Amino acid sequence: MPKQLDAPQRRSFQPLVLDAADVAEILETLSTCRDVKLIADNVEYESAEEFRTESKGRVPTEVRISAWEPYVTIDLYRFSASLHVSTSDLRGTGLFTKLAQLLQKRERKPRFLYSFSYIVPSSWVIQLVFLIPPLKSISYLSGWLLLINILWVVWVLFVQMRRHSQVFPSYRSQSGSFWRRNFDNSVVALLSALVGAIAGAAATRVADRIWPPVTSPSTTAPALISNGTAPVSSPASR
Are residues 119 and 204 in the same domain? Predict the structure, then answer.
């Protein structure tokens, strides 16, 4: 009879942002394990509160949270974010599921805006759309869209490689760190809004060409009367 073998579990995450409360929740989840450690930039902290107070607002570039029995590691680097659990038994799977849900909840939203599997195809689709005959007269917009897409790719590449994991030693309720946490999301939102605005203008142009606005003949009569004139019949109609 086939037997399921024990195997490690691993998962990588999209760019994410955590704060001291998230770190505390992770440590609480690992409280049933042995030898739990929180290390940020080669400095070991006893608790999330110590991490918050002793960091003095400085955002670390590398954070590792680890534990034993089972062996668990959460690596939060500026170029990656990953979770590893050494076993797939019932206890290990439970820990893996809880930690994965917590980390996924803190991924930057919307997730697809930080995925190259979405950005690259969208740039090709945008260029192909302007080959449609009704849009050829405004094909100059494709250049602007291409520029915005390039800026979008460059910015997301920067986030992926330099700010993939950000762990703020503060709480979300602290207003002073709000803009620092949301600056990256604001840039992506602005770029996507520009793309949406130009795409909306193009869609309106297509709609006007396919379904041109119809002017009712009856609307011209009141205008003639208000000007004190009347329609003049042609000689052929007399």
Answer: yes
